[in-house]
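The instructor's notes for this session suggest beginning with a concrete chain rather than abstract definitions. Hand out the sequence below and ask the class to guess, before any prediction is shown, which regions might be ordered.
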Amino acid sequence: MKTITNLTRKIMLSLATGLMLFVFSACATKVIFLSSAVVPAAQGTVTIKEDGNKNYFIKIQTKNLADSQKLTPPKNVYVVWLVTDNNSTKNIGQIISTSGSMSTKLKSSFETVSSFRPNKIFITAENEADISYPYSEVVLTTDFISLKN
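After discussion, reveal the predicted structure:
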């Protein structure tokens, strides 16, 4: 009897997980980063979901994003920027490529929540993460983001 109950529980949990993933992906906006002149092999996606409080869950996944120390000139971190609907630029976090956060396959991910509606997201390579304005060339950028309602 316990085996049937455990099996039923596992099936229900799998169905619930699948439904949650479907709901998230069905309501989320997914955009692809444009090709990069700075790191030509770099690719990535941005997934954005608005919650009930008008906050935006932002998830970025990249691959083939070279270690920032190997750029010319070398930099310390990748900084993620958000362009708001009034065209102001906000630093929303960092991707540290010199530590263990990036694998040997050059994959990385980044997640954050922002109260600002994103119209565009881009990544620069910088010497410091806690800056207010981008100082370096854009490594990856999205086109204008049209969020799903």
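Then share the key points. The mean pLDDT is 85. The chain has one helix and eight strands.
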